[in-house]
Structure formats: structure tokens, C-alpha cells
Design a protein that fits this description.
This protein is of the alpha/beta class. The protein is built from 12 helices and 19 strands. Helix 5 runs parallel beside helix 6 and helix 5 packs across helix 11. It is globular.
Length: 358
């Protein structure tokens, strides 16, 4: 079986191998034939060590495909079912799940420490307990979420992470108010989804901020009212808000420097929504006076800040109704053998989302 493997953390290229085997199938598990997977920035962050992940590992967590085998004790799923992969399934029994905060369930994270692939040389992990840059993967049954027949695999894959994260940040976490002003810093697939979410909520001004010109142009097509380079943000703040700051600012980069800029760009009493996944040793500094005096709300958003199954259903309904554009997010398509080309497209900012067709 073919899979793209990172041998050591810090390497910038993947090796596509044909001696990888999906492992761990048994009770409570399903085996999935992956048909499409998106390349998310979190995959790159795991490769370079920003996000913790044991190696060697198969990246990829934004995937969709067909169930080819079902383990004992699995109910509600059958061979041939079309599914998307949920990299953070809810256990339903932990304190977070019982509180209704299923996106904070830690059960899925525990899967990251259990290898779900093997090679002649030893075990191989799957990123975030999944690993979708492969032809087949074995996951807990809770990671396989059935999708309707009219949802293509590539669209379903995006809903599995980037779309749900960005839409949910605007709709669930920040709960953007109609008529408000919004700035989104970082306009890849997740940032564009946050823009679409803000537009759905009725924001009056949505400023997209990104250093890549093509991404700024794309943001305008997805609902941004203006798109600026980072060094133009201060001017936009002055022009649009008379210097007061935006009602909502979304940080979708995952760096303390951009989070600090986002904080300073948020008006007093406004909301800073932190969406980007950053490093554990990258610290955001705030002084105690400004934290008290400005009364800005700082809201981190994990996987869209709400129940992911509900969020999946909402995204599908909005897509069917033409209220959100998901096809347009896929700017590039490659085969698994071309995975390193996809990585280059992401690192240069050329792609919003690259779909790897398997």
C-alpha cells in the first residue's frame, strides 16, 4: 500500500512508499479507502515540530473515502459507506463531552500515540490519530462520519477540518454580530472559511489580511469587502473604524506576533478570536493593565468551537443551498506521488487548499 511518510521531525519532504500497511484493525475499528484528502497547514506544523507528533508518521487529517471493513462491535457503519474522517471524535463520556463541549474531548488526542501503520522497519504513526496521505487507514469507528451521496469526496474532506474550523470560529466561537466590522489575519483555507462565516452572520465590513496577493484577491471573491497586505492593516483600521479597532479580529496564523497585532487591531470591548494552531514555546505577551483596561475578549477556537457533527451537517446544508463556496477553496489538485509539490504550494501561499486525489 502507498503512503507518504515523514521519517524524522524537521524534514521538509515526504517520501511516498509502497511498503506501508494499515495496522490495528479489530473491534471498534474501521478500515477506510481514502479517496481525497486536503493539505492543511497543521500537517506542515507537525512536520516541522510546531505541533507535537511522534515520528515516523503519515501526515494528513482532512480526508474522505469509503469503508472497506468494519470491526466487531461497530454499529451504524457498514462496508461501502461513504465517510469523512473526524480527527477529533467525541467519546461522549468525559467531563468535556458531558458539558456539551465535545470539541474539547481528549480521547481523540490519545490516538496520536498509537501507531496505525507499519512497515518492514517498524511502526508508523498517523497524524492526529488518522494519517490520510495514504490509500488506506484504520481508525476508531468514531472517526468515520457518514456523508450523503451528493457530497463529493473532495468537498467532504475539506469539511473534515478547515471549513469546520473557519466557519465555526465565526459562527460558534465569536458569534459575529450583524452589521459589525471584522478583520481576518491569514487567508488560507481556514481564514477564507472564517470570512465566509462572518459574511453569513451579516458582518458589514470584512477586511482580509494576507501577505500573498493571490490570497487577497481570492478573499474578495469569498466575501471580504477589502483585502490588504499586513503593512496596510493599520491604515485600514484608521479608515474603516476611525482608529478605534475592529469589532472582531480573527488570528488564523498561529504566531504570537500576529496574535499581538490582532489584539492591537481589536477595539476596546471587542473580540479577538484565536484560530491558528501555534507552538508551545511561542508566548503571547499582554500586560495586566491593558488586559483589564481594554476589556477585550480573547476567545480561542478549537475545531470551530462547537459540536463537530452538528458543524458538519451545517456546512453541508449551507453548501447545498449555495450559501458557502467550497469548490472554490480547492485551487490545486495533485496525485499522492506529487505530495511534495502540494507542500510547496502551501508554503509559498499559492494554494488555498490542495486536494490530493488518491
Amino acid at each position: 500500500m502507498r503512503a507518504a511518510v515523514l521519517h524524522e521531525i524537521g524534514q521538509d519532504k515526504l517520501e511516498v512508499l509502497d511498503d506501508v500497511e494499515a495496522a490495528g484493525f479489530g473491534p471498534g475499528k474501521v478500515k477506510i479507502r481514502v479517496r481525497a484528502t486536503g493539505l492543511c497547514h497543521s500537517d506542515v506544523s507537525a512536520m516541522n515540530g510546531v505541533l507535537p507528533q511522534p515520528a515516523p508518521f503519515v501526515p494528513g487529517h482532512e480526508g474522505a473515502g469509503e469503508i472497506i471493513d468494519v470491526g466487531d462491535g461497530v454499529t451504524g457503519l457498514a462496508q461501502g459507506d461513504r465517510v469523512l474522517l473526524c480527527w477529533l471524535p467525541a467519546c461522549g463520556a468525559c467531563p468535556a463531552c458531558k458539558r456539551g463541549q465535545t470539541q474539547l474531548c481528549l480521547a481523540g488526542f490519545m490516538n496520536a500515540g498509537t501507531p496505525n501503520f507499519k512497515r518492514p522497519g517498524g511502526d508508523v504513526f498517523g497524524f492526529a490519530g488518522t494519517g490520510t496521505f495514504t490509500e488506506e487507514v484504520v481508525v476508531d469507528a468514531g472517526c468515520a462520519v457518514p456523508i450523503p451521496d451528493d457530497v463529493p469526496f473532495d468537498i467532504a474532506a475539506l469539511i473534515g477540518c478547515g471549513v469546520t474550523t473557519g466557519l465555526g470560529a465565526a459562527i460558534n466561537t465569536a458569534d459575529v454580530a450583524a452589521g459589525s466590522s471584522v478583520a481576518v489575519i491569514g487567508c488560507g483555507g481556514v481564514g477564507i472559511s472564517a470570512i465566509q462565516g462572518a459574511r453569513l452572520k451579516g458582518a458589514a465590513q470584512i477586511v482580509a489580511v494576507d501577505p500573498v496577493a493571490s490570497r487577497r484577491e481570492a478573499a474578495l471573491k469569498f466575501g471580504a469587502t477589502e483585502a490588504v497586505a499586513p503593512d496596510e492593516l493599520a491604515d485600514a483600521k484608521q479608515r474603516i473604524t476611525a482608529g478605534e479597532g475592529f469589532d472582531y479580529v480573527f488570528e488564523v496564523v498561529g504566531k504570537s506576533a500576529t496574535a499581538r497585532t490582532a489584539y492591537e487591531t481589536t477595539r476596546r470591548g471587542g473580540t479577538l478570536c484565536v484560530v491558528g494552531a501555534g507552538a508551545m514555546d511561542d508566548h503571547l505577551q499582554l500586560n495586566m493593565f491593558e488586559l483589564f483596561f481594554d476589556e477585550k475578549k480573547i476567545l480561542p477556537s478549537m475545531y470551530g468551537g462547537g459540536d463537530v457533527l452538528t458543524s458538519y451537517e451545517r456546512a453541508i446544508a449551507l453548501w447545498r443551498a449555495g450559501r458557502i463556496d467550497l469548490e472554490g477553496l480547492i485551487t490545486h489538485r495533485v496525485q499522492l506521488a506529487e505530495i511534495n509539490e502540494a507542500l510547496d504550494q502551501m508554503r509559498t501561499g499559492a494554494a488555498l487548499r490542495t486536494c490530493i486525489e488518491i
